[in-house]
Amino acid sequence: MLIPFASDATPVLPGKEFAGRVAKRGVTTSIASLHAVSTDPGFVDLDAAERAAGDLLEALGADTSSESLEDTPRRIAAMYAELLSPAPFDATTFPNDGGYDELVVAREIPFHSLCEHHLLPFVGVAHVAYLPKDRILGLSKLARVVDYFARSLQVQERLTTQVADWLQRELEPKGVGVVIEAEHMCMSLRGIQKPGAKTVTSALRGLVRDDGRTRQEFLALAAA
Ligand SMILES: [Zn+2]
User: Fold this and answer.
1) Of the residues 33, 51, 83, which one is the last residue of a structural domain?
2) What is the pTM for the complete model shown?
3) Residues tagged active-site
4) Which of 25, 78, 148, 215 could form a disulfide linkage to 86, CB 3.0–4.6 angstroms apart?
5) Residue 154 C-alpha to ligand 1 middle, in angstroms?
6) Considering the domain boundaries, does residue 22 fall inside one?
């Protein structure tokens, strides 16, 4: 059975579709436009994943015919399907009628993702900010866009960049800042084995990158 990602259910819109609708109130851009910047919208083949999980367990010396393991391949496949399937959402934007021109910051957005090198989780928080121009975004959407890109085989650097680039492109604000702090289980449990070590990445765009005061303000808020 193929589990299509959300985008497969809706036509992929060109990125400028959003720009063409900015004159309306409460503009909604569908999840489809997210995929224009997503690296590899794919699918989870549950049957193939279940067979492969069974093969892996046997290769690791497990007895998959035992009562307690017999359903484990199916559970593994379902787990990966869940971890790799982002919830669809509509990124509703509104006109910036009040002329708000200070940073909008969502701090400590919790997320989890899967490292594409080891298929182990990395877990942490994202701080996401933008400096509005003509449009503002529903606040919960800052968290949703993090979750969307996190539910994929990832590296932290690309996750950070994808969140920043999506906001910059879809909202066309004066600037965007994203800082992500995460602990990688592939560093905590294996290899160098440094539990608690945090990896910090950032992506700054527009005035959040180029204007010294705004940049400092964002980085101070992210570090608070
Ligand atoms: Zn890793």
Assistant:
1) 83
2) 0.82
3) 115-118, 156, 184, 186
4) 148
5) 9
6) no
| 191 CA distance to ligand 1 middle (Å) | 10
Token pair 């993702």: residue: 113
Kindly report the average pLDDT of the chain as a whole number.
84
Q: Determine the structural domain holding residue 52 and report its residue range.
A: 43-83
- Output the domain CATH number for residue 67: 1.10.286.10
Residue position matching structure tokens 């549950």: 46
| Centre of ligand 1 from the C-alpha of residue 189, in Å | 10
Those residues whose beta carbon sits under 5 angstroms from the ion ligand 1 are 115, 117-118, 186
pLDDT tens sequence across 38-86 = 334 457 899 999 999 999 999 999 999 999 999 999 999 999 999 999 9
Tens-digit pLDDT profile for residues 130-176: 999 999 998 899 999 999 999 999 999 999 999 999 999 999 999 99
Count of the separate structural domains present in the chain: 2
For tokens 């890109």, the residue is 149
For residue 114, how far is its CA from the centre of ligand 1 (angstroms)? 8
User: CB-based burial of residue 125 (10 Å sphere; 0-12 exposed, 13-18 middle, 19+ buried)?
Assistant: middle
Place of tokens 């964002």: 218
